[in-house]
């Protein structure tokens, strides 16, 4: 019986994405945990390995030994890494300013300090920078090939807080669908995507993936109540970075802007 069980596990079919999409409620299903462990490479000591999964690019934010939310690697080269998150994840100083440094941690146990280099409170975005970056991961890419439409399958990948305050060691997956066309505000030059994926406490700042292409379509930011979850759109991220950099080129991509930021 044991050899048969081993054969079934080895030949168990994988999902189309790089990680599984079993629905998560309060904790990830056993198959999601097994497949995540099976497909993740062993920790290496070089920056941004090509043999990595989206889980490897996820970080949990900690400040004063408290879990603050999620972030994810959007650029990595040499010893420099850039991490995107939500501004509201960052704790405030006594003068109501944003803290200068937070601790970022990966599911492998690697932890280091990251500086807050850009904050856009209006769009609820923040960019962190680490110059001692040495993590085997591939920066997550954004979907910049057109607008998303209602009914498309998406999945949230996030660390989250469980029942008694423990933070999940491995990021869990929360599948769902986009509920409507992206909502855009011309005055604030920002917008959001509304979806029906389940989310737990602490998932703000985590990426929402377009399932069919493995690219990020939004950054989980909150909820409107009930089952409607909101995510900061890629168009909003593009607008925020353009406002910061003033590149002049309207067709510049997010990836190109992040590279310029890293070179500064």
UniProtKB/TrEMBL annotation:
Cross-referenced Gene3D superfamilies: 2.40.10.120
Annotated keywords: Signal
Pfam families hit by this protein: Trypsin_2
SUPFAM superfamilies recorded: Trypsin-like serine proteases
Coiled-coil residue windows: none
Family matches, as InterPro entries: Peptidase_S1_PA (IPR009003)
Signal peptide annotation: 1-16
Keyword Mitochondrion: no
Stated name of the protein: Os07g0666400 protein
């Amino acid at each position: 019986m044991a050899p048969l069980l081993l054969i079934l596990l080895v030949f168990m079919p994988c999902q189309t994405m790089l990680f599984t999409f079993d629905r998560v409620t309060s904790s990830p299903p056993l198959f999601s945990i097994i497949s995540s462990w099976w497909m993740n490479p062993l920790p290496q000591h070089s920056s941004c390995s090509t043999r990595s999964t989206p889980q490897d690019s996820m970080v949990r934010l900690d400040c004063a030994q408290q879990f603050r939310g999620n972030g994810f690697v959007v650029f990595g080269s040499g010893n420099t890494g850039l991490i995107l998150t939500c501004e509201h994840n960052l704790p405030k100083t006594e003068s109501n300013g944003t803290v200068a440094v937070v601790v970022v941690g990966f599911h492998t146990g690697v932890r280091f300090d990251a500086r807050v280099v850009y904050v856009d409170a209006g769009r609820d975005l923040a960019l962190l920078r680490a110059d001692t970056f040495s993590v085997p991961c591939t920066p997550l890419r954004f979907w910049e090939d057109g607008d998303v439409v209602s009914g498309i399958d998406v999945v949230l990948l996030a660390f989250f807080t469980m029942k008694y305050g423990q933070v999940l060691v491995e990021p869990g997956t929360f599948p769902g669908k986009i509920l409507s066309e992206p909502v855009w505000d011309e005055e604030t030059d920002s917008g959001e995507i509304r979806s029906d994926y389940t989310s737990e406490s602490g998932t703000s700042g985590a990426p929402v993936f377009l399932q069919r292409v493995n690219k990020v379509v939004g950054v989980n930011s909150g909820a409107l109540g009930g089952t409607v979850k909101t995510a900061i759109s890629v168009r909003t991220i593009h607008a925020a970075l353009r406002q910061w950099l003033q590149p002049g080129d309207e067709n510049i991509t997010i990836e190109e802007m992040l590279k310029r930021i890293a070179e500064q």
